[in-house]
Specification:
Layout: H1 6-14, H2 16-19, H3 23-40, H4 45-57, H5 61-64, H6 71-84, H7 91-99, H8 113-126, H9 137-146, H10 152-166
Helix pairs in contact: 1-4, 3-4, 3-8, 4-6, 4-7, 6-7, 7-8
């Protein structure tokens, strides 16, 4: 099980003020998604680093930009980090991982495997293991037990209801078919 991802931890620490009281819940969500992705498709050191960066930023725009239309600001944060760390060549892949992570349907053939794996991993967590994409129920339970919810899903429901009241015709702008 992935329990210590230095890049993920450093990125979350850098944004702790923006996350505020949601920092633990977001950290646990990030670790759950990382673990589910790694269980679905383990890889090499670069794959783990890309996963750490994508999972750190994928929903962060909710807090840093104060919006529920958070995919563009989340991608912008990731791109800025990648440019600052000399990894601009990873931008397209990580941008796609962030952009497609709420897509409901499977991505088309030819899409990078990391993008589809990331989408599935996030769905496993958001659905609390109802969607498992072949992962054993016991493995999902083990990850969830190691990184408890800490109010993350309750926070998302609250943000969804708040967005729905303000924008009833577009309550979930981050969803993609």
């Amino acid at each position: 099980m992935l329990t210590a991802l230095p890049t993920l931890d450093a990125l979350l620490a850098a944004h702790a003020a923006a996350l505020g009281d949601d920092a633990t819940g977001y950290r646990h969500h990030a670790y759950r998604v990382a673990n589910f992705a790694w269980l679905l498709a383990p890889g090499d050191a670069d794959a783990l680093e890309k996963l750490s960066i994508a999972v750190a930023f994928h929903d962060l725009g909710i807090w840093t930009a104060g919006t529920f239309d958070y995919l563009p600001p989340s991608r912008d944060l990731a791109r800025a980090h990648l440019h600052a760390t000399g990894r601009a060549d990873w931008c397209d892949e990580i941008d796609a991982m962030i952009d497609a992570h709420h897509r409901i349907r499977e991505l088309p053939p030819g899409t990078r495997a990391s993008v589809e794996v990331f989408r599935r991993a996030d769905w496993i967590d958001v659905s609390r293991g109802v969607r498992r994409f072949g992962l054993p129920r016991a493995a999902v339970r083990e990850v969830i037990a190691a990184f408890p919810n800490a109010g993350f899903h309750r926070r998302l429901v609250g943000l969804t209801l708040q967005r729905w009241r303000r924008h009833p015709l577009d309550p979930l702008p981050m969803m993609r078919w």
